[in-house]
Amino acid sequence: MSWSVLKVVRDRNAALYLGGVLVSGFGDSAMSLAAGIWVRTLTGSDSLAALVGFCIWLPTFAGPAIGAVADRVRRRPLLIATSLTLAAVMTAPLAVRSQEDVWLLFGVLTLVGTGMVLTDAAEIALVAAAVPTELHGDFNGLVRTAVESTKLLAPLAGAGLFTAFGGPVVALLDAVSFVLAAAAFRLMRVQEAAPARRVKRRAWTAETAEGARHLRHPVLLPLVVTGGTAMVLSSLSSTATYAVLDAGLHRPPAFAGVLTAVQGLGSVVGGLAAGTLMRRMSERTFAAAGLALFALGVLTRATPWLPVVIGGSLANGLGLPCPLIAALTAVQRETPDELLGRVAATANTLMYAPTGLALLLGSGLVAVLDHRVQILASGLIGLAVAATLVVTGRTARTAAPAGTEPAPGHHADTTG
Fold this sequence. Notes:
The chain is mainly alpha-helical and 416 residues long. Helix content is 77%, strand content 0%. The longest helix has 32 residues, at 12-43.
């Protein structure tokens, strides 16, 4: 662990925020899996069980409009209030007893998804003010590490609790996690500007459009597009996982747990190293290198050799967070405070909303094509986008007027 990572952990605000991410992320991951099992148990329908994930994902499309809320009020009180509201909402599943009550689960999870979009935008904006600028890269990497860590353990815990005690207990666990997150936000010490000074009230549509326009920034747009590309390709390739195990490796479906765990380990390591790496290269180079490493990992799944595929899963985990961390760090640095909630939410929508559509497309493709076609296409597209990011970065640097200096806090692109 680098000295900068230790500095982040020792920073009061950063440590409290990371604690909140860990507990709320654990509760959400446990509940998302348990809810699918719950719906399947009550209805016997695989399609209705799959709808659980759709309910959580759907509000992402409204991110630009939801993010405007984070620019109209103080972010810390908003996070506390939203977390407590979601805690109350998570008590509603206690009333679910039969398949006639399943609609209540879908409604609750849609509200939770909406709350997650709002809190993501407010958190990104709050962190920009609460954590020293020089630690943003390390901090964002640690947040990614925390998120991936919860994904390794929480689904297993959710399934175990559901099996032993039923869905209401998992819902209560998620409610408690929101309360603990609210407590963490309450203990943070942040000086926030009054909303009246931070933003002049206008029509909601005008405020939303202003956040979207800011993403045309020459630094932000390529990074956000790269992050979105990485997530889409991850979804496309992941839908071929069971075909890879069956037709390529001749392994049982349960072996997917091994590949997922290895990829999760890679994401944890990549998150810890992110800040150090971004001090040695530009965000653009960091994002391109991460996407290329991820793409190479995807390509290994076209081979019939188990050790190679396992190594590729590790490469997937190491590379995939890099474009996302680079984009988030750049958004925090290049966006004025009065726009940060809207811009962050819009960036998240562009990076994460298309993944659901990619899952649908990938599920259709794997049913009609050899899985290797899907794998090779995903890997080669990833390499092409990474190369394009490098080449356009060089072109931009060459075209810059002589003596032009990078913006404060921004590394000049050192690709090549």
